[in-house]
Amino acid sequence: MRSRALQTASRRAALPRPSTSPPIRLASNLSQRPHSDNVSFPGALKSAFSNKLAFQHPQEWTALPTYRVVDQHGAVVDPTWTPDIPEEKIVKLYTDMLYISILDIIMFDAQRQGRVSFYMVSAGEEAASVGTSSVLEMEDTLFCQYREQGVFRERGFTTKQFMSQLFANKNDPGKGRQMPVHYGSTELNIHTISSTLGTQLPHAAGHAYAQKMRKLQNPESKSAVTAAFFGEGAASTGDFHAALNIAATRSCPIIFICRNNGFAISTPTLDQYRGDGIASRGIGYGIDTIRVDGNDIWAAREAVKRARELALEDGGKPVLIEAMTYRVSHHSTSDDSFAYRARVEVEDWKRRDNPLTRLRKWMEANGMWDDVKEKDARDVMRKEILKGISESEKEKRPPLKAMFDDTYEELTPDLKEQMRKLREIIEKYPDEYDVSEYEGGLESLKEKK
Ligand SMILES: Cc1ncc(C[n+]2csc(CCOP(=O)(O)OP(=O)(O)O)c2C)c(N)n1
Ligand SMILES: [Mg+2]
Protein backbone atom coordinates (compact mmCIF):
# COMPACT_ATOMS: atom_id res chain seq x y z
CA MET A 1 0.00 0.00 0.00
CA ARG A 2 1.23 3.45 -0.89
CA SER A 3 1.97 5.84 1.95
CA ARG A 4 -0.46 8.75 2.56
CA ALA A 5 2.28 11.27 1.72
CA LEU A 6 2.91 9.57 -1.60
CA GLN A 7 -0.81 9.49 -2.40
CA THR A 8 -1.14 13.23 -1.64
CA ALA A 9 1.90 14.01 -3.74
CA SER A 10 0.63 12.09 -6.74
CA ARG A 11 -2.83 13.69 -6.40
CA ARG A 12 -1.21 17.13 -6.37
CA ALA A 13 0.82 16.24 -9.43
CA ALA A 14 -2.38 15.27 -11.26
CA LEU A 15 -3.95 18.69 -10.71
CA PRO A 16 -3.38 21.31 -13.41
CA ARG A 17 -0.94 23.71 -11.80
CA PRO A 18 -1.03 27.41 -12.64
CA SER A 19 2.25 28.61 -13.97
CA THR A 20 3.30 31.19 -11.42
CA SER A 21 6.89 31.66 -12.43
CA PRO A 22 8.18 33.49 -15.47
CA PRO A 23 9.96 31.35 -18.07
CA ILE A 24 13.45 30.56 -16.90
CA ARG A 25 16.18 32.31 -18.86
CA LEU A 26 19.22 30.12 -18.67
CA ALA A 27 22.50 31.99 -18.88
CA SER A 28 23.86 29.12 -20.96
CA ASN A 29 21.30 29.93 -23.69
CA LEU A 30 23.40 32.96 -24.46
CA SER A 31 26.80 32.26 -25.86
CA GLN A 32 29.37 34.34 -27.63
CA ARG A 33 29.13 33.51 -31.35
CA PRO A 34 32.37 33.42 -33.31
CA HIS A 35 32.94 36.61 -35.39
CA SER A 36 30.04 38.35 -33.67
CA ASP A 37 29.90 42.17 -33.68
CA ASN A 38 28.36 42.16 -30.23
CA VAL A 39 29.34 41.05 -26.81
CA SER A 40 26.75 38.53 -25.75
CA PHE A 41 26.31 37.53 -22.20
CA PRO A 42 23.43 38.19 -19.85
CA GLY A 43 23.30 41.81 -18.84
CA ALA A 44 24.68 43.47 -21.98
CA LEU A 45 22.85 41.80 -24.81
CA LYS A 46 23.27 44.24 -27.63
CA SER A 47 26.59 45.83 -26.84
CA ALA A 48 28.64 46.25 -30.03
CA PHE A 49 32.41 45.75 -29.86
CA SER A 50 34.34 48.94 -30.40
CA ASN A 51 38.03 49.65 -30.91
CA LYS A 52 37.59 53.22 -29.73
CA LEU A 53 38.53 53.97 -26.12
CA ALA A 54 35.61 56.22 -25.31
CA PHE A 55 34.00 56.95 -21.99
CA GLN A 56 30.41 58.13 -21.99
CA HIS A 57 30.15 61.66 -20.63
CA PRO A 58 26.62 62.26 -19.36
CA GLN A 59 26.86 65.98 -20.12
CA GLU A 60 27.21 65.13 -23.83
CA TRP A 61 23.86 63.36 -23.85
CA THR A 62 20.74 65.37 -24.57
CA ALA A 63 18.42 65.58 -21.57
CA LEU A 64 15.30 63.45 -21.86
CA PRO A 65 12.39 65.46 -23.28
CA THR A 66 9.42 66.65 -21.21
CA TYR A 67 6.06 65.71 -22.65
CA ARG A 68 3.32 68.33 -22.56
CA VAL A 69 -0.09 68.74 -24.17
CA VAL A 70 -1.00 72.26 -23.08
CA ASP A 71 1.53 75.07 -22.46
CA GLN A 72 1.56 77.47 -19.53
CA HIS A 73 -0.85 79.81 -21.33
CA GLY A 74 -3.42 77.05 -21.68
CA ALA A 75 -2.76 76.65 -25.43
CA VAL A 76 -2.75 73.13 -26.87
CA VAL A 77 0.68 72.20 -28.24
CA ASP A 78 -0.03 68.58 -29.23
CA PRO A 79 -2.16 68.84 -32.40
CA THR A 80 -3.10 65.14 -32.18
CA TRP A 81 -4.70 65.58 -28.77
CA THR A 82 -8.36 66.00 -27.89
CA PRO A 83 -9.85 65.70 -24.39
CA ASP A 84 -10.98 62.17 -23.62
CA ILE A 85 -13.60 63.10 -21.02
CA PRO A 86 -16.82 65.14 -21.04
CA GLU A 87 -17.14 68.65 -19.64
CA GLU A 88 -18.49 67.67 -16.21
CA LYS A 89 -15.48 65.42 -15.63
CA ILE A 90 -13.09 68.18 -16.65
CA VAL A 91 -14.81 70.53 -14.21
CA LYS A 92 -14.49 67.85 -11.52
CA LEU A 93 -10.71 67.65 -12.13
CA TYR A 94 -10.39 71.40 -11.86
CA THR A 95 -12.53 71.65 -8.74
CA ASP A 96 -10.56 68.82 -7.09
CA MET A 97 -7.39 70.84 -7.67
CA LEU A 98 -9.11 73.96 -6.41
CA TYR A 99 -10.38 72.11 -3.34
CA ILE A 100 -6.94 70.97 -2.21
CA SER A 101 -5.45 74.40 -2.83
CA ILE A 102 -8.13 75.92 -0.55
CA LEU A 103 -7.81 73.11 2.01
CA ASP A 104 -4.07 73.73 2.10
CA ILE A 105 -4.35 77.46 2.77
CA ILE A 106 -6.91 76.96 5.52
CA MET A 107 -5.03 74.10 7.20
CA PHE A 108 -1.70 75.94 7.02
CA ASP A 109 -3.37 78.78 8.94
CA ALA A 110 -5.03 76.32 11.32
CA GLN A 111 -1.56 75.05 12.23
CA ARG A 112 -0.39 78.60 12.85
CA GLN A 113 -3.38 79.07 15.15
CA GLY A 114 -2.33 75.98 17.11
CA ARG A 115 -5.37 73.93 16.09
CA VAL A 116 -3.35 71.13 14.42
CA SER A 117 0.26 70.27 15.19
CA PHE A 118 1.55 69.95 11.62
CA TYR A 119 0.51 70.28 7.99
CA MET A 120 1.99 69.97 4.49
CA VAL A 121 0.60 71.81 1.49
CA SER A 122 0.93 70.79 -2.14
CA ALA A 123 0.70 74.23 -3.78
CA GLY A 124 1.97 74.17 -7.35
CA GLU A 125 1.81 70.36 -7.53
CA GLU A 126 -1.96 69.85 -7.74
CA ALA A 127 -2.01 68.62 -11.37
CA ALA A 128 0.60 65.94 -10.73
CA SER A 129 -1.58 64.32 -8.07
CA VAL A 130 -5.12 64.93 -9.35
CA GLY A 131 -4.19 64.27 -13.00
CA THR A 132 -2.33 61.01 -12.43
CA SER A 133 -4.95 59.69 -10.02
CA SER A 134 -7.79 60.45 -12.41
CA VAL A 135 -6.81 57.73 -14.90
CA LEU A 136 -6.15 55.02 -12.35
CA GLU A 137 -8.89 52.53 -11.52
CA MET A 138 -10.34 51.89 -8.07
CA GLU A 139 -8.94 48.32 -8.28
CA ASP A 140 -5.45 49.79 -8.61
CA THR A 141 -3.64 49.95 -5.29
CA LEU A 142 -1.93 53.21 -4.41
CA PHE A 143 1.04 53.98 -2.20
CA CYS A 144 1.57 57.68 -1.59
CA GLN A 145 4.27 59.87 -0.06
CA TYR A 146 2.76 62.80 1.90
CA ARG A 147 2.07 65.49 -0.69
CA GLU A 148 -0.62 63.65 -2.63
CA GLN A 149 -3.77 64.98 -1.01
CA GLY A 150 -4.97 65.50 -4.61
CA VAL A 151 -4.94 61.72 -5.10
CA PHE A 152 -7.10 61.19 -2.02
CA ARG A 153 -9.52 63.93 -3.05
CA GLU A 154 -9.77 62.72 -6.64
CA ARG A 155 -10.62 59.18 -5.47
CA GLY A 156 -13.35 60.48 -3.18
CA PHE A 157 -11.82 61.24 0.23
CA THR A 158 -14.34 63.52 1.95
CA THR A 159 -13.85 66.70 3.98
CA LYS A 160 -14.90 64.77 7.09
CA GLN A 161 -12.26 62.10 6.38
CA PHE A 162 -9.49 64.69 5.88
CA MET A 163 -10.49 66.49 9.06
CA SER A 164 -10.92 63.36 11.20
CA GLN A 165 -7.34 62.38 10.40
CA LEU A 166 -5.91 65.88 10.80
CA PHE A 167 -7.65 66.42 14.13
CA ALA A 168 -7.13 62.80 15.23
CA ASN A 169 -10.69 62.44 16.44
CA LYS A 170 -12.66 59.26 17.05
CA ASN A 171 -13.60 58.99 13.34
CA ASP A 172 -9.95 58.86 12.24
CA PRO A 173 -9.32 55.42 10.68
CA GLY A 174 -5.77 55.62 12.09
CA LYS A 175 -7.30 56.07 15.57
CA GLY A 176 -5.15 59.10 16.30
CA ARG A 177 -1.93 57.14 16.21
CA GLN A 178 -0.40 58.93 13.24
CA MET A 179 0.84 62.47 12.75
CA PRO A 180 -1.37 64.76 10.63
CA VAL A 181 -1.37 64.15 6.82
CA HIS A 182 -0.67 60.41 7.17
CA TYR A 183 -3.95 59.57 5.51
CA GLY A 184 -4.95 56.08 4.45
CA SER A 185 -8.12 54.55 3.10
CA THR A 186 -9.11 50.92 2.76
CA GLU A 187 -12.21 51.75 0.66
CA LEU A 188 -10.17 53.88 -1.72
CA ASN A 189 -7.42 51.25 -1.90
CA ILE A 190 -4.68 53.61 -0.68
CA HIS A 191 -2.15 52.38 1.84
CA THR A 192 -1.48 54.57 4.86
CA ILE A 193 1.24 57.15 4.35
CA SER A 194 4.54 56.92 6.18
CA SER A 195 6.90 59.89 6.35
CA THR A 196 9.95 57.65 6.42
CA LEU A 197 11.06 58.35 2.88
CA GLY A 198 11.06 55.60 0.31
CA THR A 199 9.60 52.86 2.51
CA GLN A 200 6.43 52.72 0.42
CA LEU A 201 8.40 51.81 -2.71
CA PRO A 202 9.54 48.23 -1.91
CA HIS A 203 6.10 47.63 -0.36
CA ALA A 204 4.53 48.78 -3.61
CA ALA A 205 6.83 46.61 -5.75
CA GLY A 206 5.99 43.61 -3.57
CA HIS A 207 2.31 44.39 -3.86
CA ALA A 208 2.57 44.57 -7.65
CA TYR A 209 4.33 41.21 -7.64
CA ALA A 210 1.44 39.75 -5.64
CA GLN A 211 -1.03 41.23 -8.17
CA LYS A 212 0.91 39.55 -10.96
CA MET A 213 0.88 36.21 -9.16
CA ARG A 214 -2.83 36.49 -8.40
CA LYS A 215 -3.58 37.17 -12.04
CA LEU A 216 -1.54 34.14 -13.10
CA GLN A 217 -3.46 31.95 -10.69
CA ASN A 218 -6.81 33.42 -11.65
CA PRO A 219 -6.67 34.72 -15.22
CA GLU A 220 -10.38 35.69 -15.09
CA SER A 221 -9.77 38.24 -12.31
CA LYS A 222 -9.80 41.93 -13.18
CA SER A 223 -6.41 43.33 -14.14
CA ALA A 224 -5.02 45.89 -11.74
CA VAL A 225 -1.78 47.78 -11.26
CA THR A 226 0.02 49.37 -8.34
CA ALA A 227 0.92 53.05 -8.40
CA ALA A 228 3.67 54.35 -6.15
CA PHE A 229 4.06 58.10 -5.62
CA PHE A 230 7.24 59.69 -4.29
CA GLY A 231 9.34 62.84 -4.42
CA GLU A 232 12.67 63.12 -6.19
CA GLY A 233 14.30 63.37 -2.74
CA ALA A 234 12.92 59.95 -1.81
CA ALA A 235 14.66 58.64 -4.93
CA SER A 236 17.94 59.09 -3.02
CA THR A 237 17.00 56.30 -0.61
CA GLY A 238 18.24 52.77 -1.06
CA ASP A 239 14.63 51.61 -1.01
CA PHE A 240 13.97 53.42 -4.30
CA HIS A 241 16.72 51.47 -6.07
CA ALA A 242 15.71 48.16 -4.51
CA ALA A 243 12.11 48.73 -5.56
CA LEU A 244 12.93 49.63 -9.15
CA ASN A 245 15.25 46.71 -9.61
CA ILE A 246 12.96 44.08 -8.11
CA ALA A 247 10.01 45.46 -10.12
CA ALA A 248 12.11 45.30 -13.31
CA THR A 249 13.58 41.83 -12.78
CA ARG A 250 10.25 40.33 -11.64
CA SER A 251 8.27 42.26 -14.31
CA CYS A 252 5.73 43.70 -11.90
CA PRO A 253 2.71 45.76 -13.01
CA ILE A 254 3.65 48.98 -11.23
CA ILE A 255 3.73 52.66 -12.17
CA PHE A 256 6.33 54.65 -10.27
CA ILE A 257 5.19 58.28 -10.23
CA CYS A 258 7.87 60.73 -9.15
CA ARG A 259 6.98 64.34 -8.40
CA ASN A 260 10.18 66.21 -9.08
CA ASN A 261 9.45 69.50 -7.33
CA GLY A 262 13.01 70.78 -7.19
CA PHE A 263 13.61 70.33 -3.46
CA ALA A 264 14.06 67.80 -0.70
CA ILE A 265 13.19 70.21 2.11
CA SER A 266 16.03 72.76 1.73
CA THR A 267 18.23 70.72 -0.63
CA PRO A 268 17.76 71.80 -4.24
CA THR A 269 17.93 69.12 -6.92
CA LEU A 270 21.33 70.45 -8.05
CA ASP A 271 22.73 69.23 -4.74
CA GLN A 272 20.74 65.98 -4.74
CA TYR A 273 22.07 64.42 -7.93
CA ARG A 274 24.18 65.07 -11.02
CA GLY A 275 22.30 62.87 -13.52
CA ASP A 276 19.38 63.71 -15.78
CA GLY A 277 16.68 63.83 -13.12
CA ILE A 278 14.98 60.68 -11.91
CA ALA A 279 13.85 59.55 -15.38
CA SER A 280 17.36 58.55 -16.41
CA ARG A 281 17.43 56.12 -13.48
CA GLY A 282 14.36 54.30 -14.80
CA ILE A 283 16.17 53.66 -18.07
CA GLY A 284 19.20 52.46 -16.12
CA TYR A 285 17.02 49.80 -14.54
CA GLY A 286 15.54 48.75 -17.90
CA ILE A 287 12.18 50.35 -17.17
CA ASP A 288 9.91 52.12 -19.70
CA THR A 289 10.15 55.77 -18.72
CA ILE A 290 8.72 59.16 -19.57
CA ARG A 291 9.26 62.68 -18.24
CA VAL A 292 6.21 64.90 -18.28
CA ASP A 293 5.34 68.49 -17.52
CA GLY A 294 3.71 67.92 -14.15
CA ASN A 295 1.92 71.27 -14.27
CA ASP A 296 -0.04 70.09 -17.29
CA ILE A 297 -2.89 67.93 -16.06
CA TRP A 298 -3.55 66.64 -19.58
CA ALA A 299 0.04 65.45 -20.01
CA ALA A 300 -0.14 63.75 -16.61
CA ARG A 301 -3.34 61.97 -17.62
CA GLU A 302 -2.08 60.85 -21.04
CA ALA A 303 1.17 59.56 -19.54
CA VAL A 304 -0.52 57.51 -16.81
CA LYS A 305 -3.17 56.17 -19.20
CA ARG A 306 -0.48 54.80 -21.50
CA ALA A 307 1.67 53.70 -18.55
CA ARG A 308 -1.22 51.66 -17.20
CA GLU A 309 -1.57 49.84 -20.54
CA LEU A 310 2.17 49.19 -20.64
CA ALA A 311 2.20 47.98 -17.03
CA LEU A 312 -0.37 45.33 -17.90
CA GLU A 313 1.33 44.16 -21.09
CA ASP A 314 2.87 40.66 -21.21
CA GLY A 315 1.66 39.79 -17.72
CA GLY A 316 3.16 42.92 -16.19
CA LYS A 317 6.03 45.37 -16.31
CA PRO A 318 7.08 48.49 -14.43
CA VAL A 319 6.88 52.02 -15.82
CA LEU A 320 8.41 55.21 -14.43
CA ILE A 321 6.95 58.69 -14.83
CA GLU A 322 8.84 61.77 -13.71
CA ALA A 323 6.51 64.75 -13.37
CA MET A 324 8.32 68.10 -13.24
CA THR A 325 6.35 70.38 -10.94
CA TYR A 326 7.96 73.15 -8.88
CA ARG A 327 7.23 73.22 -5.14
CA VAL A 328 5.70 76.64 -4.60
CA SER A 329 5.01 76.00 -0.93
CA HIS A 330 7.29 75.73 2.06
CA HIS A 331 8.20 72.10 2.69
CA SER A 332 5.84 71.91 5.67
CA THR A 333 4.54 74.08 8.50
CA SER A 334 7.94 73.49 10.17
CA ASP A 335 9.84 75.12 7.31
CA ASP A 336 10.54 78.65 6.10
CA SER A 337 11.76 78.17 2.54
CA PHE A 338 12.82 81.81 2.15
CA ALA A 339 15.81 80.90 4.29
CA TYR A 340 17.20 78.95 1.33
CA ARG A 341 15.54 80.29 -1.82
CA ALA A 342 14.69 83.69 -3.15
CA ARG A 343 11.17 84.97 -2.70
CA VAL A 344 11.23 86.23 -6.29
CA GLU A 345 11.89 82.69 -7.61
CA VAL A 346 8.69 81.48 -5.98
CA GLU A 347 6.71 84.52 -7.11
CA ASP A 348 7.93 83.94 -10.69
CA TRP A 349 6.70 80.34 -10.69
CA LYS A 350 3.37 81.34 -9.21
CA ARG A 351 2.88 83.98 -11.88
CA ARG A 352 4.36 82.19 -14.87
CA ASP A 353 3.24 78.62 -14.44
CA ASN A 354 0.53 77.40 -12.14
CA PRO A 355 -1.28 74.12 -12.87
CA LEU A 356 -4.65 75.51 -11.82
CA THR A 357 -4.33 78.63 -13.94
CA ARG A 358 -3.24 76.52 -16.89
CA LEU A 359 -6.31 74.30 -16.81
CA ARG A 360 -8.54 77.25 -16.02
CA LYS A 361 -7.28 79.17 -19.07
CA TRP A 362 -7.92 76.14 -21.26
CA MET A 363 -11.43 75.70 -19.79
CA GLU A 364 -12.23 79.39 -20.23
CA ALA A 365 -11.08 79.23 -23.84
CA ASN A 366 -13.45 76.30 -24.32
CA GLY A 367 -16.42 78.02 -22.67
CA MET A 368 -16.47 75.77 -19.59
CA TRP A 369 -15.51 78.22 -16.84
CA ASP A 370 -15.72 81.90 -15.91
CA ASP A 371 -15.20 84.28 -12.98
CA VAL A 372 -18.69 83.72 -11.56
CA LYS A 373 -18.25 79.92 -11.51
CA GLU A 374 -14.82 80.33 -9.96
CA LYS A 375 -16.15 82.56 -7.17
CA ASP A 376 -19.12 80.29 -6.45
CA ALA A 377 -16.96 77.16 -6.34
CA ARG A 378 -14.44 78.80 -4.02
CA ASP A 379 -17.17 80.03 -1.65
CA VAL A 380 -18.85 76.62 -1.43
CA MET A 381 -15.58 74.77 -0.78
CA ARG A 382 -14.31 77.28 1.74
CA LYS A 383 -17.52 77.01 3.73
CA GLU A 384 -17.49 73.21 3.55
CA ILE A 385 -13.89 73.05 4.82
CA LEU A 386 -14.46 75.55 7.66
CA LYS A 387 -17.60 73.65 8.70
CA GLY A 388 -15.55 70.42 8.59
CA ILE A 389 -12.96 71.94 10.92
CA SER A 390 -15.45 73.15 13.51
CA GLU A 391 -17.34 69.84 13.47
CA SER A 392 -14.18 67.75 13.74
CA GLU A 393 -12.76 69.81 16.55
CA LYS A 394 -15.89 69.11 18.59
CA GLU A 395 -15.65 65.33 18.21
CA LYS A 396 -14.14 63.25 20.97
CA ARG A 397 -10.69 61.77 20.59
CA PRO A 398 -10.33 58.02 19.87
CA PRO A 399 -10.59 55.76 22.94
CA LEU A 400 -7.36 55.58 24.96
CA LYS A 401 -7.46 51.82 24.53
CA ALA A 402 -6.81 52.33 20.77
CA MET A 403 -3.13 52.90 21.48
CA PHE A 404 -2.84 49.23 22.49
CA ASP A 405 -4.89 47.81 19.62
CA ASP A 406 -4.10 46.42 16.18
CA THR A 407 -0.49 45.35 16.60
CA TYR A 408 -1.63 41.93 17.79
CA GLU A 409 -5.02 40.39 17.22
CA GLU A 410 -5.35 39.98 20.99
CA LEU A 411 -3.59 42.01 23.65
CA THR A 412 -0.44 40.26 24.84
CA PRO A 413 0.18 39.91 28.62
CA ASP A 414 2.77 42.73 28.34
CA LEU A 415 0.27 45.09 26.71
CA LYS A 416 -2.41 44.20 29.24
CA GLU A 417 0.03 45.06 32.01
CA GLN A 418 0.93 48.39 30.37
CA MET A 419 -2.75 49.20 29.98
CA ARG A 420 -3.38 48.44 33.65
CA LYS A 421 -0.47 50.66 34.72
CA LEU A 422 -1.68 53.52 32.54
CA ARG A 423 -5.12 53.28 34.13
CA GLU A 424 -3.57 53.30 37.62
CA ILE A 425 -1.55 56.43 36.90
CA ILE A 426 -4.53 58.28 35.47
CA GLU A 427 -6.65 57.28 38.48
CA LYS A 428 -3.93 58.40 40.87
CA TYR A 429 -3.45 61.83 39.28
CA PRO A 430 -6.90 62.86 37.99
CA ASP A 431 -5.95 66.55 38.03
CA GLU A 432 -3.03 65.94 35.70
CA TYR A 433 -4.88 63.76 33.21
CA ASP A 434 -8.25 64.87 31.97
CA VAL A 435 -9.49 61.91 29.95
CA SER A 436 -13.02 63.19 29.44
CA GLU A 437 -12.29 64.21 25.84
CA TYR A 438 -11.41 60.61 24.92
CA GLU A 439 -14.23 58.37 23.76
CA GLY A 440 -15.25 56.19 26.70
CA GLY A 441 -12.92 58.01 29.15
CA LEU A 442 -11.13 55.72 31.55
CA GLU A 443 -13.65 52.93 30.94
CA SER A 444 -11.95 51.98 27.66
CA LEU A 445 -8.83 50.98 29.60
CA LYS A 446 -10.72 48.48 31.72
CA GLU A 447 -10.09 44.98 30.57
CA LYS A 448 -13.22 43.21 29.39
CA LYS A 449 -13.71 39.87 31.10
C1 LIG B 1 14.45 58.08 5.39
C2 LIG B 1 14.22 59.54 5.65
N1 LIG B 1 15.25 60.40 5.57
C3 LIG B 1 15.05 61.72 5.79
C4 LIG B 1 13.81 62.18 6.12
C5 LIG B 1 13.59 63.67 6.38
N2 LIG B 1 12.81 64.22 5.27
C6 LIG B 1 11.48 64.38 5.36
S1 LIG B 1 10.83 64.99 3.95
C7 LIG B 1 12.33 65.09 3.20
C8 LIG B 1 12.46 65.61 1.79
C9 LIG B 1 11.87 64.70 0.77
O1 LIG B 1 11.89 65.29 -0.46
P1 LIG B 1 11.08 64.74 -1.68
O2 LIG B 1 11.07 63.25 -1.68
O3 LIG B 1 11.57 65.39 -2.90
O4 LIG B 1 9.56 65.16 -1.40
P2 LIG B 1 8.94 66.62 -1.31
O5 LIG B 1 8.97 67.00 0.13
O6 LIG B 1 9.77 67.51 -2.15
O7 LIG B 1 7.54 66.50 -1.80
C10 LIG B 1 13.34 64.66 4.06
C11 LIG B 1 14.77 64.63 3.73
C12 LIG B 1 12.76 61.24 6.22
N3 LIG B 1 11.51 61.61 6.50
N4 LIG B 1 12.97 59.93 5.96
MG1 LIG C 1 11.01 67.09 -3.78
UniProtKB/TrEMBL annotation:
Q: In this record, what's one Pfam family?
A: E1_dh
Keywords in UniProt for this one?
Metal-binding, Mitochondrion, Oxidoreductase, Potassium, Thiamine pyrophosphate, Transit peptide
* GO BP term, pick one: branched-chain amino acid catabolic process
Query: Where is it located?
Result: Mitochondrion matrix
Chief location: mitochondrion
Q: Where is this chain compositionally biased, Polar residues type?
A: 1-10
Q: Where is the Dehydrogenase E1 component domain?
A: 96-399
Enzyme Commission no: 1.2.4.4
EC main class here is: oxidoreductase
Q: Which InterPro entries match?
A: Alpha-ketoacid_DH_E1_comp, DH_E1, THDP-binding
**Keyword Mitochondrion listed:** yes
| Example GO molecular function | metal ion binding
Any GO CC annotation of this UniProt entry:
mitochondrial matrix
Cofactor(s) listed: thiamine diphosphate
What is catalysed by this protein? N(6)-[(R)-lipoyl]-L-lysyl-[protein] + 3-methyl-2-oxobutanoate + H(+) = N(6)-[(R)-S(8)-2-methylpropanoyldihydrolipoyl]-L-lysyl-[protein] + CO2
- Give the region (Disordered) as residue ranges: 1-35
**What does it do?**
The branched-chain alpha-keto dehydrogenase complex catalyzes the overall conversion of alpha-keto acids to acyl-CoA and CO(2). It contains multiple copies of three enzymatic components: branched-chain alpha-keto acid decarboxylase (E1), lipoamide acyltransferase (E2) and lipoamide dehydrogenase (E3).
Q: Which family does it belong to?
A: Belongs to the BCKDHA family.
- What's the protein here called? 2-oxoisovalerate dehydrogenase subunit alpha
